[in-house]
Amino acid sequence: MMRVILANKLKIRLMAVLAAVSAALPVQAADFLVIAHRGASGDRPEHTLAAYERAIDQGADYIEPDLVATKDMHLVARHETEIGETTDVGEREEFADRKRSKTIEGRLVTGWFAEDFTLAELRTLRVKERLPGLRPANTRFDGLYQLATFEEIVALVQAKEAETGRRIGIYPELKHPTWLLQEAGIDTVDLLATALRKAYLDDADDPVFVQIFEVGPLKRINALVEVPLVLLISSEGGPYDEPSMSWADIMTPSGLAEVAAYADGIGPYLGHVLGEDGTPTGLVADAHAAGLAVHPWTLRKENAFLPPPLRRGESESAAGDLATLARMVVASGADGVFTDDPALVVQALGEGD
Fold it and tell me: Where is the GP-PDE domain (predicted)?
């Protein structure tokens, strides 16, 4: 009974915060960055050129490709090195013998892995929707798109800049760089630094952020390029390459001061920025005091990803009130946000202007 009472009180408190934020329009968010998480992945299969282009057309300030590497040292956009979940590789008889199990950062994963394929082999695959149960409309695009290389993503951004006349940023994340170096001998830090220099995107004023969930690789890339760097922060645990560190310690004022020595911002789990009742925590203020920008992740429109007061209807896949959550993030003082649905966030931040 006590647990039910506390839950109801929390819901009432959250609803009060939501009402206060909604009443505070127009939102002053002129410098707030809308970062398209894996592209407009709420509308198209993630990490495809189609998803990135749609995000740009919807007004995103930055597009975010997660980068893994092929056996022949090409950077390609996938959320994980395991590609069976997001491609048709499991249906390809010629690659049946590539299926295996690997322990990635302490987690046993079975499937097919990008680092076991050449780029030419990956080019024969086609992408499919990662969340078909929640995003059935995206499955109509299954089989249409190839995996995208980082070079192709840069070329797309440059073409869209020429078409639109506006600056479009790129926000790459290196996935498992320490593990890939140790287990496969692939140095994705060097590959990305080289790619950025080749594209003339390695200066401090270029519209690029590089993000990683690890400390050592960020420090390494800090010595190779001048672009802003972001330490990603997960919901629990700590950085894989620094087992003695915890995210909780890193998010203290002294921990954030240490981060500021090698990075320009943090990308925390949204729950570190907004409390369960919807009010801001002290993280944004502490990060700003250390000179760090704050870009939390991830806003998604589906009920499955929203707090109960923002859900609409009974279906987990139905769209809830993402606009109010976006305004809450702005009200927290954060400098930007990752979202699967850039069109909805752009619209929410523009309402009342």
Answer: 32-349
